[in-house]
Design a protein that fits this description.
277 residues; alpha/beta; Rossmann fold; ProC C-terminal domain-like fold; 8 strands; elongated; binds 1,4-dihydronicotinamide adenine dinucleotide; binds (2S)-3,4-dihydro-2H-pyrrole-2-carboxylic acid; NADP; Pyrroline-5-carboxylate reductase
Length: 277
């Protein structure tokens, strides 16, 4: 029996990310549906979550905290303070680990709303976690011991790859892999549009575009070779690829992606400083 098999996992908020993580925990065998519990004031969200994960629903945030060891805060950043306010009184420093996945909210701000000495992890997963191919960066607070660090690792390893980073880099993780799926969907949609423009049926164009992005990503991950080297191997002298690359470089696409990750990172920092504007 693994060390985490007796752990119960609670969710404050039962939306998209709570569903992705709950399903990952069950699919990977880290937890059974029996060991999951969630609270969400939106009955429809809670109903969908229990159906997707096999977990239980709770009548309040405090009931979730009382029923589990790991409390995952999966509400929008603007709701974190309220959710913690409802949960804090039931939180026991010796027993619990709290994991927040809210974009931008610093460890110190979460710790300040819990009893002194609370073990807190701040994490940034992404939506491909729903398929077990997520990418998560997380930072551990001052009071996280080795056992609870292991709980956090197992949670996110159940839905993809994990990197432990200093908290100062979590906004950059948010800008890159947290928001990144949306950037890549835009590429897939645009490449498919290009195929349609050149006469391919929409369905074929989208399938070819999406498989191309997945294949290229796997080439980077599985060969360990530099993307520039892999790019060069596609690019014949005087051929088709260099004609397209030339246009992309002239359009500033490389700079646009750097700017996009920077803008998303800065927005994450802004969320953490309490500014919504
Ligand atoms: N969607 C994404 O790609 C990612 C989102 N995140 C973070 O995850 C968090 C959740 O995002 P999503 O799952 O996309 O949002 P969502 O909107 O799908 O789910 C949030 C849920 O919280 C519920 N809620 C509102 N007030 C509550 C309260 N007081 N107590 C308990 N539940 C409450 C809502 O009814 C809703 O069902 C956000 O903080 C976001 O920054 C992190 C990584 C990726
Ligand atoms: O757009 C957002 O704020 C959230 C955080 C990372 C992905 N989605």
């Amino acid at each position: 029996m693994s060390q985490t098999s007796a752990i119960r996992w609670g969710f404050l908020g039962a939306g998209r990310m709570a569903t992705a993580l709950g399903r990952g925990l069950v699919a990977s065998g880290v937890a059974s549906g029996e060991a999951l519990i969630a609270y969400d004031p939106l009955a429809s969200a809670l109903g969908q979550w229990t159906q997707a994960t096999g977990g239980h629903s709770a009548p309040s945030a405090a009931a979730v905290v009382k029923a589990c060891e790991v409390v995952i805060v999966a509400v929008k950043p603007s709701v974190v303070a309220a959710a913690l306010g409802e949960a804090a009184a039931a939180f026991q420093v010796e027993r619990h680990l709290l994991i927040s996945i809210a974009a931008g909210i610093p460890l110190a701000a979460i710790e300040a709303r819990l009893p002194s000495g609370a073990a807190v992890v701040r994490a940034m997963p992404n939506t491909p976690a729903l398929l077990g191919v997520g990418a998560t960066g997380f930072a551990a607070g001052r009071h996280v011991d080795a056992t609870r660090l292991d709980w956090a690792k197992r949670c996110f390893e159940s839905v993809g790859i994990v990197r432990v980073v200093p908290e100062a880099l979590l906004d950059a993780v948010t800008g890159l892999s947290g928001s990144g799926p949306a950037f890549v969907y835009l590429i897939i949609e645009a490449m498919a549009d290009g195929g349609v423009r050149m006469g391919l049926p929409r369905e074929e164009a989208q399938a070819l575009a999406a498989q191309t992005v997945m294949g290229a990503a796997r080439m980077v991950l599985e060969t360990g070779r530099h993307p520039g080297q892999l790019k060069d191997e596609v690019t014949s002298p005087g051929g088709t690829t260099i004609a397209g690359l030339h246009l992309l470089e002239r359009a500033g696409v490389r700079g646009a992606f750097i700017d996009a990750v920077e803008a998303a990172t800065l927005r994450s920092r802004q969320l953490g400083s309490g500014s919504s504007g």
